[in-house]
Amino acid sequence: xxxxxxxxxxxxxxxxxxxxxxxxxxxxxxxxxxxxxxxxxxxxxxxxxxxxxxxxxxxxxxxxxxxxxxxxxxxxxxxxxxxxxxxxxxxxxxxxxxxxxxxxxxxxxxxxxxxxxxxxxxxxxxxxxxxxxxxxxxxxxxxxxxxxxxxxxxxxxxxxxxxxxxxxxxxxxxxxxxxxxxxxxxxxxxxxxxxxxxxxxxxxxxxxxxxxxxxxxxxxxxxxxxxxxxxxxxxxxxxxxxxxxxxxxxxxxxxxxxxxxxxx
Length: 264
Ligand code: GUN
Hints:
The protein is α/β, with parallel strands linked by helices. Helix content is 39%, strand content 15%. It has helices at residues 3-19, 36-52, 67-79, 98-104, 123-134, 154-163, 177-185, 245-263, and strands at 26-31, 55-60, 85-88, 143-147, 167-171, 189-192, 211-214, 218-219, 225-226, 237-238.
């Protein structure tokens, strides 16, 4: 099944699940940046909620908002009985502590899965695992390579793959080219999230039955969205950009929102 087909089928199932609930789940998104990329993400998240019959509210704050004011907003929505899920769109303006904001969102509503005490799986790793599971990827004992060690993708992805009994290797900016080539050549699954246009290319060797999951979102010289891998590498399955992991991330957010609403 392609990602688009998987997302469409999953949304239809979620719409049915939501229609059976007494209250429609309600997501609040706080955005305090004027980043066009965030605008696009946020529009996508609101559209997804609408499609499955959930409610979404955007709280747009000026990038000049103080940390205190932002934290006060978070607190207001934490207490609001009518709100099931609360996310603060990243990146935040430089004068605001991301760590403080992540800790401020109450774990019960933390559908991004960013709080240390959260019970929610962060959206990108969750979306990827759900899709690979649907595709029948046999996680147990497989060599999984995660490229990138960010807090929102690389680290939680590695943890989740470990829980699926993969042999997990995390590679990063300090890994030598030689070691990268070695691990990539032996990988059954490669999750690439380093933000470098076309980083995975034909200079590496791949297992022919390998799966490449491309989390990268980069602009090429023509301003078009492209991933961290060049298209059509010689592997069994490679997720596209656009139309790939971004859709899975948004789907996982709606799934987390429904869980949050049901937990109430
Ligand atoms: N910015 C980029 N990805 C994300 C995400 O998954 N959640 C939030 N809140 N901000 C982001």
